């Protein structure tokens, strides 16, 4: 074997390691045979890869499950409960918060610090986040859980790459705020400068966290967010990684309530419980604007998340009736099962995504080739 084919074989094994960990993370106590069937790898290859993931602290063998078709029970594998965690952070108009998310997608150590963020400079928001991050780093360290990454969910449009992230959010009064750099500086102060940090749109993270996105080929329109609302199109379990948060600033009621973006009657403002106390009227407004998005996409499902997840049955019925008038069958409209927790869950999962994609890099500290 020459040098280049040895490297290629190493890359393939590295790729397969991620494939196998992905099956354990997304499966439900899957067996080695189950992974072999799902990935097309041989049983012996899977067993070898699982041995590496067990030794690397990413997978745990929880013993035999019920008997399979051969009658011999397979040993079941789950993400290691003592494995790495993703640190999820969140900024909203009325506070900052965060939690830890493990490889199985479970959220813990939730924190929420109420603070009036709207109208404050991003420096203040970053400083408000620092104690939350400190508490989460302590919680991770206390449980001896290594932190794989930090993802900050923000309400608004995120542009630019890692070092130059800019966030524009009428709800917060921010125009191209460099919140990523500011939070990275706070993390550095806390001794967490070595942990990768990313800033993502909260509504898109919420859509990605939704557990049931239907069978392959399913198209879902997800509407989520709290301070800002955004629409995300999820096809085949994949979003484009961003939400259309300008959606919230489409005019739902001409001449209506003044919005921080400068217009009047924006959907984001008109559907606020404080502005519109009648959930049926709020639901009709959302349904009417949303119909402009669902009519051309003809989604299999419309998920009402974020601030709309807990808006109640009268609200859901009004959205459903309005969409039905525009050709979307009533049984396609469902409230999110994650509710307002979705953006943080999505952020934590996004923080762990590099570990799942390339477990070899995590185990050995050897960066991607
Ligand atoms: Zn607006």
From TrEMBL:
Gene3D superfamilies in alphabetical order: 3.30.420.40, Winged helix-like DNA-binding domain superfamily/Winged helix DNA-binding domain (1.10.10.10)
Domain of life: Bacteria
Family: Belongs to the ROK (NagC/XylR) family.
Protein name as catalogued: NBD/HSP70 family sugar kinase
